[in-house]
Amino acid sequence: SQQGEEDPQALSIQEGENATMNCSYKTSINNLQWYRQNSGRGLVHLILIRSNEREKHSGRLRVTLDTSKKSSSLLITASRAADTASYFCATDAGGGSTLGRLYFGRGTQLTVWP
Amino acid sequence: KAGVTQTPRYLIKTRGQQVTLSCSPISGHRSVSWYQQTPGQGLQFLFEYFSETQRNKGNFPGRFSGRQFSNSRSEMNVSTLELGDSALYLCASSQRPSDRYHYNEQFFGPGTRLTVL
User: Whole-number mean pLDDT of chain A?
Assistant: First the structure.
């Protein structure tokens, strides 16, 4: 399976602290994405990093990608209570007929306490 | 632009029944994908449609089917419902399918929560 795996499964921090979530995957990819999901609702796209990129920033988000270790990390700086959600990494297939199909990890549940 | 809409938002059915879920993509988007989310299996790909053709299919039994209409709206159908079909069904749309050189972002709808009793 190409499914990613997030670590930790759950993370609880105070407002203002940084939150780091990790994702590992199994096969080659074209890109890796991070999504947020609030309480069983739809997924919100946060950031995409391509396989030839090593780091990407978007506002308070910083994503790194290490293709040699098949891993990625998502850092949320200066967390807010509104960041409380589940965070998923998703990879696409390296090629072939399944291109564009997303493989999701199980997610990290982040709780930010006021 | 309006986002991806899914109807109904909540649905309760009993075992053995069938159900049809609907997804309206973002205007101008021609590719629609469906995902099933359960606590046990997480998010799993069901199928992808583009220009009324199924382009890709996940590892689900034949009870799960779908189609896409000429206006890009998509429906998925589950026949002979089982308890294990209880899930959040998410639809995602993109302008067109991705290829090796161009990734087209997928935008997700709010989902349909299906409960099978």
Answer: 89
